[in-house]
Amino acid sequence: MFVKYLKCNRCGREYKLDSKPVLCENNDLGRLDVIYDYEKLERAFNVENLGKRPFNMWRYIEFLPVPSQKYVVSLGEGGTPLLKSTRLAEALGLRNLYLKDETRNPTGSFKDRAMSVSVSMAKFFGFKKAAIASSGNAAAALAAYGAKAGLDVFAFVPDFAGYGKIAQLLYYGAKVFKVRWTEAEDPTVKMMRLVVEKYGFYPSPSFGVYNPYQIEGPKTISMEIVEQLEWNTPDQVFVPTGAGSLLTGVYNGFRDFNAVGLINKYPKMVAVQPEGNYPLVRAWRERQDPLNIRPWEKPPETIATGLEDTFPWDGDAALKAMYATNGYGVVVSDEEIIQAMKLLASLEGIFAEPSGAAGLAGLVKAVNEGLVDKDETIVVLITGHGLKDPDVIRKTAGDAPLINPSLEELKKASENYYKVRI
């Protein structure tokens, strides 16, 4: 085992993994950061051995907190393709644009990486029931891995969560509760906290304050990126951002590989948030204290429902990562996100939900603002499949013309509707 200890990012209290910690006992909303023994890791991890391992995220098990392979709960997550863009890159004037397609994960989003680790740790700790606050993707992932492990899942989702995500949860056997959003504070987090405190459930949201282990899963994204780039580091990575957990995890992957000498630099970490909810980007713009980020003052308003965290729970680590890598933040409109979804699908054949395409919307804006050099190696994370949010897709995709089986009607409809002559 390569975990030295866990340390609260607020009070500094340390915990041994054998004591099975999840929350800081000082109740200070501190995240228990996992601290690894990098000297031991450097001696144990051999790149040459990777060729003997399946290409999924558990090929990097030494860098994950699960004590033994016997506790691993897996559905084959990770090992997603890093696709070199052609048509989209040409449209943006970029020479080295890559798309990390996380839609290929078992439940259709990157959250599978997080919940595979989280449920594996729940198995190690001996929990039987888990609770989550989620807009949908993390809950679906937890429900899937919970089903695999026999873990009973109680999911609290906002009342406006897309039915596609709710249906997925119900099929996995989760107990789903839609919670009315009547105030700026996230009511789903409130409900999760109440059942954890009252009934002792295992908390497993996709942010580190309530579960420090899940944040370790997404760092395998950056490890895969480095390996797929033949052990090179990209110049910039664009990350759709809500609570800041994904950006933190991806940065931590680069940190771990730097610490053991596999790479020797970091990419700029770029946080992309919707204009209806951008507390982390605002904090970056105002150079706020990472431990005192101001929450968004009103309910979020965005088509990207996966990025609706009004408080960036892991914003302290995400903000530090942006500062440390000379990264930056980008705010995008719903219209820019929809356009990015269409570009991604029509030029590269990748169908993403709004949250999943937000990173590309951020790249388009950054290119237009001169923040990206055409020769830089750019990676955009595509984080969730388009079928995750069918209600939004129906509203934004339009419909097809109805014709009789007639070539004349086909010709007219093609010219009138699609502006294409046959």
UniProtKB/TrEMBL annotation:
Record lineage: Archaea, Thermoproteota, Thermoprotei, Desulfurococcales, Desulfurococcaceae
Amino-acid biosynthesis keyword on record: yes
Modified residues (N6-(pyridoxal phosphate)lysine): 111
Keyword check for Lyase: yes
Listed EC numbers: 4.2.3.1
Species per Swiss-Prot/TrEMBL record: Thermosphaera aggregans (strain DSM 11486 / M11TL)
UniProt cross-references to Gene3D superfamilies, sorted A to Z: 3.40.50.1100
Protein name: Threonine synthase
UniProt keywords, alphabetically: Amino-acid biosynthesis, Lyase, Pyridoxal phosphate, Threonine biosynthesis
Function: Catalyzes the gamma-elimination of phosphate from L-phosphohomoserine and the beta-addition of water to produce L-threonine.
EC top class, as a word: lyase
Reported cofactor(s): pyridoxal 5'-phosphate
